[in-house]
Predict the 3D structure of the following.
Amino acid sequence: REIYYDLVDEKTKEDGRWVLDGAPLAVSDLRISLEHDHFIRTRFPVQDRLDGRYVLDPGLKLSGRVTDQNGKPIPGSHITVGRDRWGSLDHPILVEKDGTYVVHALKPQSSWVTAEAPGFAPQVQPLELHAATKSVDFELKPGHITRFKFVNDKGEPTTLGRRLYCQ
């Protein structure tokens, strides 16, 4: 019953407006999906052919700091929020040079927040996200190397045709 296709993939102008030239005549079943890094992703039914107005929800913010064991920021570190360390965000949030981060547009929920950086062991913390949630800080420890060798039933080295996931 529902078919999804893109009529337009546009950014709004400075005044928040955009125009869809070529919309179908019947807009009763037309929905618009709105995405912005600082607002909760949402879908709305198209309100009006000439002057639809959509109010975006900024949601909640999560902030904190990512450092090493000496309290120094870790270049290249990033944060994900979601059901596991791979998160449910479209992309990880990069940590600033001073070690701070802010994740925008989150819904109140029970979840997980993960900090990762090259050369460090990832750290996962449970999260009860609500308006009064304090910052979530991470102190990452150096990672360890784990090596794998995959062989066939004769003990001969073999390659995997898919990704390897360790859980």
Observations:
- The two ends are 37 Å apart (CA to CA).
- The chain has no helices and nine strands.
